[in-house]
Amino acid sequence: MHPSTVSRALSPAMKHLVAADVANRIQAAANALGYRLNMAAKGLRTGRSGLIGVLAPDIADPGFPPVLSGIADHLHAQGYATIVADVGSEGSEQDLVDRLIAHGVDGLVLATVTLDDAIVTHCLDSALPVVLVNRLDRGARLPSVAGDDEGGMRLAVDHLVALGHKRIGHVAGPQEISTGARRRAGFEASLREAGLATRNALVETASAYTRAAGREAALRLLTRKSRPTAIVAANDLLALGVYDALATRGLACPDDVSVAGHNDMPFVDMVSPPLTTVRIAQRDMGEAAARLLLGRIANPAGSREHLMLPPRLIIRGSTAAPRPAS
Amino acid sequence: MHPSTVSRALSPAMKHLVAADVANRIQAAANALGYRLNMAAKGLRTGRSGLIGVLAPDIADPGFPPVLSGIADHLHAQGYATIVADVGSEGSEQDLVDRLIAHGVDGLVLATVTLDDAIVTHCLDSALPVVLVNRLDRGARLPSVAGDDEGGMRLAVDHLVALGHKRIGHVAGPQEISTGARRRAGFEASLREAGLATRNALVETASAYTRAAGREAALRLLTRKSRPTAIVAANDLLALGVYDALATRGLACPDDVSVAGHNDMPFVDMVSPPLTTVRIAQRDMGEAAARLLLGRIANPAGSREHLMLPPRLIIRGSTAAPRPAS
DNA sequence: CTGAAAGCGCTAACAG
DNA sequence: CTGTTAGCGCTTTCAG
Question: What is the tens place of the pLDDT at every residue in A181-191?
Answer without folding.
Answer: 999 999 999 99
